[in-house]
Amino acid sequence: MGNFSKSIHSWVGQHYLWVLELFIVIFTVLLAGYFVNLLVDRFSLKAKETLTVWDDALIEACRKPIVWLIWILGVNFAASIAAKKIESDWLLIIEPVNRLAVIFLGALFLNNFIKRAESNLIDPKFTSKPMDPTTVRAVARLLRAAILITSFLIAMQLFGYSVSGLLAFGGIGGIAVGFAAKDLLANFFGGLMIYLDRPFAVGDWVRSPDQEIEGSVEDIGWRLTRIRTFDKRPLYIPNCVFANISVENPSRMSHRRIFETIGIRYSDIDKMDKIVHKVRSMLQSHRNIDSSETLIVNFNQFSSSSIDFFVYTFTKTTDWIDFHQVKQEILLNISDIIISEGAEVAFPTTTIDLSEEVSSDDVTPLSVKRGRVARGS
Q1: Is residue 223 in a domain?
Q2: How far apart are CA 224 and CA 222, in angstroms?
Q3: Do residue 234 and residue 100 come from a single domain?
C-alpha cells in the first residue's frame, strides 16, 4: 500500500508540476511589471529636473509599452508551458502573437512619444521658446500616420501577405483615386501649405480683402479651416481657397495706427501753429504712443467749413479693446489742447452773403448752423 501511494504522488508530481511553474512564471511577470513601473517613476522624477523636453517624452512614452510587453511575453511563455504539457495546438500561434505584440507595442511607444513631445514643444513650462502649435500638430499628425501605415504593412508581412503586391496595387489605385478625388487632394495640399507657410495659426484674427472672410481661426484641418466670425457664426472654408486669395493677419501686426483729421474754425487760424505743436509734444510724451515709429501732426488743408490738421501715429498696444481706450484718451487730450488755446472744433456751417444792392431793411441775413436757421437783426 505504501509503494502504491508513493507511485501516485510521483505521478501527480510529474504531471501537475507545470501548474506550479505557471504560477511562478505569472507571479514573476506581475512582480517584474510592478518594479519596472516603479523604476519608470524614478526616472520620470529625474527627468523633470532637466530643461530638455525629450527625456520627459521618452520616459512617459515607454511606461505602458514596457510593462505591457513584460506581461504579454510572460503570459505567452506560461501559455507555451501549458500547451506543451497538454499537447495543444496553441503552441503554433504563440510565436506570431509575440511578434504582433512587439509590433503593436513599438507603434504604441512611438505614438506616445510623438504625442508627449508635441505637447512639450508648445508648453512654456517645458521650453523657453515654444514652437508654433499649428506646425507642431501638423508634423505630429504626419508622423503618427506614417507609423500607423508602416506598422500595418509589417503586420501583414508577418502573416504572409505580399506587401509588394499591395504597394503595386496601391500605386495603380492611387492614380484612379487621384482623378476621382482631385478636390479632396487639392484641399489636402492646401492644408499642407498652410502648415508649411504658416500665414496664420489657430487663434489668429484673419481677414481677406478678396472674399467676405473675417474672424478668428479655430481649427486647421486637412480639408477645411474653421473660422469663427465676430458675430459668433462658424465659417468652414476649403483649404484650396487660400491658395487663390490674399489673406491679412491683423493678429501679427506690430502696432495699431491712429489716423484722424481734426478741423478748427477759420477764425482760429492764428492759433493753428500752437495747437499743432502742443498736440505733437503730447503724443511724443504719451506712454502708450511709440514715438520711434512715424509720428506726424501737421496743418493739412482748407476745408469748406474748417481748417484741418491731421494726426498720424502708432500705439504700442495691438489689443483691439486697449487700442480704443488709448485712442479715446488721445482725442480727448487733443480737444483739451484746442480749448486751452481759445479755439473751437469746427462743425459744418453755411454763411449767406447778400448783395449790397439789397437793402438791409428788406432782407434779414440768415445763418444756418447744423440744420437750424437763426435770424439776425
Answers
A1: yes
A2: 6
A3: no
**Does 203 lie in the same domain as 122?**
no
* Sheet containing strand 296-302, strands side by side: 256-264, 307-315, 296-302
Task: Give me the pLDDT at residue 39, please.
Answer: 77
Range of the structural domain that residue 236 is part of: 198-251
User: How many Cβ atoms are within 10 Å of 113's Cβ, its own excluded?
Assistant: 20
DSSP state of 11: H
The predicted structure's pLDDT at residue 305: 87
What string of H, E and C letters represents the secondary structure of 127-151?
CCCCCCHHHHHHHHHHHHHHHHHHH
372 is a domain residue: no
Q: Answer yes or no: do 173 and 292 share one domain.
A: no
Write b or e for each residue in 285-318: b if 16 or more Cβ atoms lie within 10 A of its Cβ, otherwise e. ebeebbeeeebebeebeeeeebbbbbbbbbbbee
What per-residue confidence (pLDDT) applies to 7? 46
Q: pLDDT grade, residue 25 (50/70/90)?
A: confident
Bridge partners of 13, per DSSP, are: none
**Pair (15, 160) in one structural domain:** yes
Which pLDDT score is estimated for 216?
A: 92
Same domain, 123 and 268: no
Residue 164 exposure: Cα atoms within 13 Å on the Cβ side: 0
Chosen domain end from 217, 251, 285: 251
Looking at the fold, whether 140 and 89 belong to one and the same domain comes out as yes
- Please, what's the b/e burial string for 35-55 (b: 16 or more CB within 10 A of its CB; e: otherwise)? ebeeebeebeeebeeeeebeb
- Residue 262 and residue 247 share a domain: no
* For the chain, percent of residues with pLDDT exceeding 70: 71
* 194 pLDDT higher than 50: yes
Residue 141 inside a domain? The answer is yes
Model confidence pLDDT, tens digit, residues 303-358? 988 999 999 999 999 988 999 999 999 999 999 999 999 999 988 877 776 665 55
